[in-house]
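Holo prediction — zinc ion.
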Amino acid sequence: MTRFLFPNFKKKALTFSYDDNNEQDRRLTCILRFHRLTGTFNINTGSFGEKRWIEHCGFYCEYNRVEEKEVKSLYNGFEIASHTVDHVILPEVDRYTFDYQVTADCKKIGQLCGTDAVGLAYPCGRYNNETAEHLKELDIHYARTIEDTHSFALPEDFLKWHPTCHDHDPRIGELADAFLNDNSDELKLFYIWGHAFEFDKNDSDRWADMDRLCKKLSGKEDIWYATNREICDYVTAARSVKELSGINNTGFDLFLEKDGEKIVWKNNKKL
Ligand SMILES: [Zn+2]
């Protein structure tokens, strides 16, 4: 039997996804970097420099947006993806607005950082089949929902990419243990999402909780620490292979296991 593994023959992948480019991302990126973790920040390029407070699930939180000039350095080492220009609810806008909100955001990210965004987190998690279909037409590779699965399964449809759980999910400790201890043969993805402004909520020491979680999940030989895009693009490439023969033209080195033997199928090379 032949099957694909993640890069470097890993069977586990961990990724993070944070929305809304709040100033609290400054502290969060430091924590992630300190633990050598990576992930994706979904930003609204129409919001830079805005300052306000919001009420979120019964808590008042400072909701200031980062400045345009700091974006490139702040998110260096992470993926920057789209959250639309103005945080619009995609299923509720007309087609012209939809196209503008997504494509202008992706392009602006490219101007700021050198790489156009190809992924997205649905503002307020709102989407439907038509929204997902339309994103595909705009060449968006993936879009994240807020429908927590509490599972480590890879998504069937990357344009409806359901995360494992929110970073403050009551089950996150149990899920982290299950992920770390799972030595089964299937590929496993632990996908954690949230908003950095929520770490300021004072129901517990959420910043310390996040630091502990990151410490626990970091530095493991068997985990691929990756951005959303890296995971989506690699898995999409592997899934596009119809036949395990001939030239690998996926654009990626593919890592395979064939009857227990580990094989790298180099890009542009024969198997
Ligand atoms: Zn948002």
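READOUT: The pocket of zinc ion is lined by residues 19-20, 83, 87, 123 (CB under 6 Å).
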